[in-house]
Amino acid sequence: MVKAFIFDMDGVLCDSETLMAAAACRMFKERYNVTVTAHDFEPFVGTGEDRYLGGVADKIGVKLTMPADKEEAYRIYGEIARDEIQAINGVIGFLKSAHAKGFRLAVATSADPIKMEINLEAIGADQSLFSAQVTGDLIEHKKPAPDIFLMAAKLLGLSPSECVVFEDAVNGVKAAKSAGMRCVGITSSFPAEVLKANGADWTAADFKSLPPEFIKAAAL
C-alpha cells in the first residue's frame, strides 16, 4: 500500500535543470575563462552540486575552489531562477491533493538547502506540505546510492515499500530502486525509454499526464 510520495526537486518539482546548467556555465566562464555547455553536465544530473560542478571540472582539467565556486554558481542561479523558474505542470495541484488525501510527502534532493529554499519559494510550493525534507548536505553517499531516499522514508516513519519516488534523472531512478521503492520517471531531463531502462516503474511527462496504471497502484 502506498502511503507516501518522495520527490526529487530539480526536474520534478520545478523545471530548473537548464537554469542550473546556465548558472554553472557562467561560473566557469567568469571564474576560469573556460567555456562549457549544458551537455557537459548531463552525466552528473542528480548527484548534488559538488559532483555536478566537480565532474565537469575534472573532465576539462580545472581545479575548483570550493565552496566558493559553488556559492557563486548558486548566486547566479538565484538571480536566474527567481524570474525564470517554472513549476512542473500539475505538480502544485498534485501536492495539495495528495496531502489532503492523507499521503505523506517528502522532498529528497541532492542539492543544498539554499537551492531547495530558492526553488520552493519561486514555484509557490508551501513547505508545510512536506513532512520531511532531505538535502544533499545530510547525505554522505549521493545518488545513485539509495541513502537519501532511505533517510526520507525513515523520517516519514515508513518502510521503503510504502513509498513511491518521483525522479527525472537516471542516477535518481537507480537510487530509488536500490532503496526498494517504486519510481515514477518524469521525462523532463531524460526520455522515457532511458528512465524505464534504468528501472522506472512508470513514466510521465508531468503531473497532468500520470499513467492510469500508477493512479490505480497508488489508489489515488
Structural account:
The protein folds into 2 domains: 4-15 and 86-218, HAD superfamily/HAD-like (Rossmann fold, 3-Layer(aba) Sandwich), CATH 3.40.50.1000; 17-84. The radius of gyration is 17 Å and the shape is globular. Helix 9 (192-197) links the parallel strand 5 (182-186) and strand 6 (202-204). A 6-stranded parallel β-sheet has the order 3-2-1-4-5-6, with helices on both faces. The protein has 10 helices and 6 strands, in the order E-H-H-H-H-H-E-H-E-H-E-H-E-H-E-H. It has 220 residues and is α/β, with parallel strands linked by helices. The mean pLDDT is 94. Helix content is 46%, strand content 11%. It has helices at 17-32, 38-41, 49-60, 68-84, 91-100, 113-123, 147-156, 170-178, 192-197, 212-218; strands spanning 4-7, 104-108, 132-134, 163-167, 182-186, 202-204. Helix 1 packs across helix 4 (68-84) and helix 4 (68-84) packs parallel to helix 6.
CATH architecture of the largest domain: 3-Layer(aba) Sandwich
- The termini sit apart by 11 Å
Q: Into how many domains do the coordinates divide?
A: 2
CATH superfamily of the largest domain: HAD superfamily/HAD-like
Q: Write out the strand line-up for the largest beta sheet, numbering strands in chain order.
A: 3-2-1-4-5-6
Q: What is the CATH T-level topology of the largest domain?
A: Rossmann fold
β-strand number: 6
Q: What percentage of the residues does DSSP assign to strands (E)?
A: 5-15%
What is the level 1 CATH name of the largest domain? Answer: Alpha Beta
Shape: globular
Uncertain segments are none
Instruction: Give the overall average pLDDT.
Output: 94
Task: Report the biggest beta sheet as strand number plus sense, adding barrel if it closes.
Answer: 6 strands, parallel
